[in-house]
Amino acid sequence: LPANGDLTAAEVGLLKIDNAPDRLRDALAPVIWNFDVILIDCPPSLNMLTVNALTAAQSVIIPVQCEYYALEGLSALLDTVEKVRKSTNPDLRIEGVLRTMFDPRNRLANDVSNQIAEHFGATVFETLIPRNVR
After folding, report:
1. 30 & 68 share domain
2. H or E segment to which residue 105 belongs
3. Of 17-26, 56-65, 88-97, 122-131, where does mean pLDDT reach its minimum?
4. What does the pLDDT look like over 110-124, one tens digit per residue?
5. What is the spatial distance between Cα 82 and Cα 109, in angstroms, rounded to a whole number?
6. pLDDT tens, 23-74?
7. Are residues 128 and 88 in the same domain?
8. Would residue 40 be called left, alpha or beta, if left means φ above 0 and alpha means ψ between -120 and 50 degrees?
9. Looking at beta carbons, which pairs linking 13-19 to residues 24 or more positions away fall under 8 Å?
10. What is the pLDDT at residue 72?
């Protein structure tokens, strides 16, 4: 289902209720077995909607832009994943790390890509999503 402006109101509403992190998981529970895969596309911000998605998920695919500041965002996301594991979803696992916005001509992109590969090892997908997709 596509997102729309109602998500902003939903996030504000989540802040006002008990068991807020469980709301998406509870909503999906009756239909989860009707699907082989349910993909929840999250915004790049680490807000209550993202916590809901991580609480409902079995695993997470982490897209990372091959740019310097993306490593800071990655660190914050990993902290959030660990907090969700400890509080609401102990079985949450990292399915893989997907390097995106990769430009092989750019030294910084190569450096960031290599740092990601070194840090995450076999968890990093071999596929690199290029900056220009044609």
Report:
1. no
2. none
3. 17-26
4. 999 999 999 999 999
5. 27
6. 889 999 999 999 999 999 988 888 888 999 999 999 999 999 999 888 888 8
7. yes
8. beta
9. 14/48, 14/49, 14/52, 15/48
10. 86
What one-character DSSP code corresponds to residue 41? P
**Domain identity same for 80 and 31:** no
In 3-state terms, what secondary structure has residue 95? Answer: strand
8 Å CB contact between 109 and 66: yes
DSSP category for residue 73: H
Tokens 């409902």: give the residue.
56
- Nearest residue to 62 (alpha-carbon basis) of 36, 23, 24, 53: 53
**Domain identity same for 45 and 84:** no
Could you tell me the pTM of the whole model?
0.84
pLDDT over 70 (residue 134): no
Contacts of 44 (CB under 8 A, 6+ apart): 73
Range of the domain at 108: 59-134
Q: Compute the distance between CA of residue 22 and CA of residue 88 in angstroms, rounded to an integer.
A: 8
Query: What's the length of the chain?
Result: 134
Give me the half-sphere count of Cα atoms (radius 13 Å) on the Cβ side of residue 1. 6
